[in-house]
């Protein structure tokens, strides 16, 4: 039993959160939707592009009136006037991570005959499950990362389980699950893991993945950029960090793939701002 628990720690965490989600959350109630608060801004990019073709976000009143309380108690105004145009104040990183689940929700909504407007019940449940997927992924990265520093699998599993159920992760996974917190957790732990793999193996794919995860973290929430300072602790010293950097810049293929990845991802919010204005 102990070996099973240690081996499947992340899956046990996911199972616990699935139970909590279906027990506590009530997405069918207008006051307890999954897509709420700042999540409406992040998610709004997807519905604006794929459903309404409206980057002025004129559809906000439609979904607020149809799916949320009439007293506007959970209304979220994320539109900012700018020189006669309208700009979404939310960053677009979560929209990128939402995208596969949004497309699945849209397909299921069409198949089962629900309103394909981006906010009906299947979209609400799917976005909640998306958050739990990224929680599971973040835990997988964290276990893989901690195993680089400890051979005690029981201790590693205990630490990850404690973080998953004993911190405010539980709030942002269930109550306000379309906020940036769980998604930042996943991509930042992924970045640390990919960085260690790049240091160990010097393979192009790890440099590209660490570049992708870092840039995703930035376009989710720009203040996430500060965690780059943690690379020093992963490298062990300034000398090791300098050595690893020199190895990287001498790998032309790794540099090219990393630059392409960085430019591609960081251009997403820039392009969206341009289209909005």
3D architecture notes:
The structure is a single chain. The protein is mainly α and 277 residues long. It contains 13 helices and two strands. α2 runs antiparallel to α6, α3 crosses α5 and α5 crosses α6.
Total of helices: 13
E-strand count: 2
Percent helix, as a range, is: 55-70%
Q: Measure the end-to-end span.
A: 58 Å
Task: Provide the structure class.
Answer: mainly alpha
Strand residue percentage: under 5%
What's the story with the biggest beta sheet?
Answer: 2 strands, antiparallel
Low-confidence stretches: none
**Strand sequence of the main sheet, in spatial order?**
1-2
Question: Compute the gyration radius: what is it?
Answer: 20 Å
